[in-house]
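input
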Amino acid sequence: MVAFVTADWVARRLGEPGFLLIDTRFSMRHLMGHLKLAVNVPPPKLRDAQGWLLPAEHLGRLFGEVGLGDDVIPVLYDGSDGRNSAMVSWALEYLGRDDVHVMDVVYDQWKAQGREVLYRPVPRRPRQFTVRVNPGVRASIDDIAGSKGVKLVDTRSLEEYTGEAGTDDNPGHIPGAVHLPWQDLVGRDGQLACSETQAQRTFDVANINPSDRIVTYCKVGARAAVAYLAFKRLGYDVRLYDASYAEWERSGNPVEK
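output
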């Protein structure tokens, strides 16, 4: 379970040996300023050249090489919309970590509060990262195609969902999926995510119930990870289909418009 923590909580732990700050923004943003001792792990590093999630063992080596060991607590932060931190936190949960923390304000808010920002690269201290795959947080294409008891949640734009816009070769959505745009779950005024009250209201409007077995998807996983995290915060039974619509359409499966 991911824990949201305040900027004050993070500030008190800067430099403590038992914590590792992970900047999940894209590399150029990281080079333009970052929190003290923060290493950079943006979502593209989690994927291969074809855009698929790396094997679990490769992911474990990646996190170990940047300094996340078995006895070190990861503390993530992000930029404006939370897609990166949601995806990276989900990946860590998939690898078996139950100690992931995410700062509840975005980097620009941290900076606006006059807190310390550094610009030099952070030396890495590789550590042992033990992978303990948690399959319960991930959905595969076989899970989607073969199950009638799953509520699919498409988190893309309405135009992508209806097939009216986008770059898909076969536009539309996975049959039976309900639409819930990921932007409705993003925070405002420097907050990373919307409040739990707002999230619950959004789920209710979409007719998604706590008893549903939910799978979120988008194009390649990051937007769906925002919804995954929101559902998880409220105790819903949820998995992420990280290969998402990109895999579904490439596989020649039927779509709805």
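quick obs: The chain has a mean pLDDT of 96.
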